[in-house]
Amino acid sequence: NFAFIELPKKEEKEEEVTPEPEVRKTLTLDAVARYIKSGKCESLFAVTAGIPDFRSPGTGLYANLRKYDLPYPEAIFQIDYFKKHPEPFFALAKELYPGQFKPTICHYFMKLLKDKGHLRRCYTQNIDTLERVAGLEGEDLIEAHGTFYTSHCVSFCCRKEYNLDWMKDKIFSDDIPRCDKCNSLVKPDIVFFGENLPVRFFTSMKMDFPCCDLLIVMGTSLQVQPFAGLVGRVSKSCPRLLINMEKAGQADPLFGLLGFGGGMDFDSDKAYRDVAHISTCDEGCLALAELLGWKEELEELVKQEHARIDSQDRKEKASGSKGAAAKASSASVAPEPEKEE
């Protein structure tokens, strides 16, 4: 069993000993780095968000929905409304669509953790596919709120799958995506109100978290269930690191009295495994990378990957411009008159 602090040895009297305040100072980011470098951390899990829950009022996405004449703002993310009126969602999807942003330091830090043999899995609430762009693959990810990476026909009798590029072409050409096979609507595999979270989320968490050696939680308020409950699924000896702009996920004292555990404990006299690093996700990951001796490697990885993405974008835009120009040119050429016989 691992704890960041060493409890004082019990005296002859069998009384519970509470760590002294100076001992609790070992609950630091440096302690996490030492643990990762110790060789004992072979099964690390990350729980990430980093962007607001795309379905939640107050995220800014709802501010521009009045023009769609919705019965209420949340309707745009309700599956029953979508099946009858898909136009508002696909209009909004242009703003949500992946490819408009690059992965950041925290995404590439997770890729480094994977490459160095530490990361077992990343559980994310994000739907933007940036973890995949950074180099994590399907087996490395549990996308709890779904993803734009794949789409499916909504018909239960069909369920044909479509890829990211197919859906992108439809959305940006202002076409309502319909199935090539049955003509039903096709929806990105993001979780709407009225839909269940992916089955893989529930099956994987039961197998994954009991064997977790270190849990890193980033950029989430830990308020949305069942995602928030993941922190309580690791063993009681598993250290947990929160990188966030404020402390989150702390145990409710009332729940403690009722026997429900699992919440984070950063400040009490009994705190022994939870570390809060108050910063942005990128700043926290860069600080941890520096303590691990990976800072230069991480910065170089970000630089190279961003250059690759920029180069790819330029090629795609140039190709798109040539295609549009050729199409316009062919349309502007008047057909030759037919010769009379």
Automatic annotation (TrEMBL):
<dbReference type="InterPro" id="IPR050134">
    <property type="entry name" value="NAD-dep_sirtuin_deacylases"/>
</dbReference>
<feature type="binding site">
    <location>
        <begin position="53"/>
        <end position="55"/>
    </location>
    <ligand>
        <name>NAD(+)</name>
    </ligand>
</feature>
<dbReference type="GO" id="GO:0050793">
    <property type="term" value="P:regulation of developmental process"/>
</dbReference>
<feature type="binding site">
    <location>
        <position position="281"/>
    </location>
    <ligand>
        <name>NAD(+)</name>
    </ligand>
</feature>
<dbReference type="Pfam" id="PF02146">
    <property type="entry name" value="SIR2"/>
</dbReference>
<dbReference type="GO" id="GO:0008270">
    <property type="term" value="F:zinc ion binding"/>
</dbReference>
<dbReference type="InterPro" id="IPR026591">
    <property type="entry name" value="Sirtuin_cat_small_dom_sf"/>
</dbReference>
<dbReference type="InterPro" id="IPR003000">
    <property type="entry name" value="Sirtuin"/>
</dbReference>
<dbReference type="GO" id="GO:0005634">
    <property type="term" value="C:nucleus"/>
</dbReference>
<feature type="binding site">
    <location>
        <position position="158"/>
    </location>
    <ligand>
        <name>Zn(2+)</name>
    </ligand>
</feature>
<feature type="domain" description="Deacetylase sirtuin-type">
    <location>
        <begin position="49"/>
        <end position="295"/>
    </location>
</feature>
<comment type="function">
    <text>NAD-dependent protein deacetylase.</text>
</comment>
<dbReference type="InterPro" id="IPR029035">
    <property type="entry name" value="DHS-like_NAD/FAD-binding_dom"/>
</dbReference>
<protein>
    <recommendedName>
        <fullName>NAD-dependent protein deacetylase</fullName>
        <ecNumber>2.3.1.286</ecNumber>
    </recommendedName>
</protein>
<feature type="binding site">
    <location>
        <position position="153"/>
    </location>
    <ligand>
        <name>Zn(2+)</name>
    </ligand>
</feature>
<dbReference type="InterPro" id="IPR017328">
    <property type="entry name" value="Sirtuin_class_I"/>
</dbReference>
<dbReference type="GO" id="GO:0051239">
    <property type="term" value="P:regulation of multicellular organismal process"/>
</dbReference>
<feature type="compositionally biased region" description="Low complexity">
    <location>
        <begin position="320"/>
        <end position="335"/>
    </location>
</feature>
<keyword id="KW-0520">NAD</keyword>
<feature type="compositionally biased region" description="Basic and acidic residues">
    <location>
        <begin position="306"/>
        <end position="319"/>
    </location>
</feature>
<keyword id="KW-0862">Zinc</keyword>
<dbReference type="InterPro" id="IPR026590">
    <property type="entry name" value="Ssirtuin_cat_dom"/>
</dbReference>
<comment type="similarity">
    <text>Belongs to the sirtuin family. Class I subfamily.</text>
</comment>
<feature type="active site" description="Proton acceptor">
    <location>
        <position position="145"/>
    </location>
</feature>
<keyword id="KW-0539">Nucleus</keyword>
<keyword id="KW-0479">Metal-binding</keyword>
<feature type="binding site">
    <location>
        <position position="179"/>
    </location>
    <ligand>
        <name>Zn(2+)</name>
    </ligand>
</feature>
<feature type="binding site">
    <location>
        <begin position="125"/>
        <end position="128"/>
    </location>
    <ligand>
        <name>NAD(+)</name>
    </ligand>
</feature>
<dbReference type="GO" id="GO:0070403">
    <property type="term" value="F:NAD+ binding"/>
</dbReference>
<keyword id="KW-0808">Transferase</keyword>
<feature type="binding site">
    <location>
        <begin position="244"/>
        <end position="246"/>
    </location>
    <ligand>
        <name>NAD(+)</name>
    </ligand>
</feature>
<feature type="binding site">
    <location>
        <begin position="220"/>
        <end position="221"/>
    </location>
    <ligand>
        <name>NAD(+)</name>
    </ligand>
</feature>
<dbReference type="GO" id="GO:0017136">
    <property type="term" value="F:histone deacetylase activity, NAD-dependent"/>
</dbReference>
<feature type="binding site">
    <location>
        <position position="182"/>
    </location>
    <ligand>
        <name>Zn(2+)</name>
    </ligand>
</feature>
<feature type="region of interest" description="Disordered">
    <location>
        <begin position="306"/>
        <end position="341"/>
    </location>
</feature>
